[in-house]
Design brief:
Layout lengths: L5 H17 L2 H9 L5 H4 L9 H16 L6 H9 L7 H5 L5 H8 L8 H7 L5 H10 L6 H4 L3
Helix pairs in contact: 4-5, 7-8
Length: about 150
């Protein structure tokens, strides 16, 4: 789609990319990837640096950081998830009526390593302070100092 001002479009994309680098984007990517209802529509696995193999590094990283255990089978379990093997299949997920946390709480005991990771990820509570900080960093919240005419 054409933009009337190509320079403006390039500038906006550059700013978004800079902001993106500042955030904890791997967690957001994992949230998309580990949500069965949106992973096929929002997540494109044919992108060179955004495929299952690439994202597996974040799964192993966060598992090590959060649980401090030596990994033995998380990639095998992740591969079962990627291939929609039971209990990661669509029919099982649909029974939870889009409740992704309940789905992963159900699946977690049947996995040794993968299950606890999305339970923790989707259990992260977004509080007002973190949302306010995010919106402020994006320039959407104005402070008294910022509102003053200079």
């Amino acid at each position: 789609e054409e933009y009337p001002d190509e320079d403006l479009a390039k500038h906006i994309i550059l700013r978004l990319e800079q902001r993106w680098k500042q955030w904890e984007q791997p967690l957001l990517l994992l949230a998309f990837l580990l949500n069965s209802s949106i992973r096929d529509t929002w997540f494109r696995t044919n992108t060179d640096n955004l495929n299952f193999t690439y994202l597996a590094q974040f799964i192993t990283y966060y598992y090590k950081v959060w649980f401090e255990y030596q990994l033995t089978c998380i990639l095998l379990e992740f591969e079962k998830y990627r291939k929609y093997e039971y209990s990661f299949d669509h029919s099982t997920y649909k029974q939870f009526k889009e409740n992704i946390l309940k789905f992963w709480e159900f699946v977690s005991p049947s996995t040794k390593e993968l299950g606890p990771l999305p339970v923790r990820l989707f259990g992260i509570c977004v509080n007002a302070a973190s949302v306010e900080q995010l919106l402020s960093s994006m320039g959407f919240i104005h402070t008294n100092q910022r509102n003053c005419l200079q």
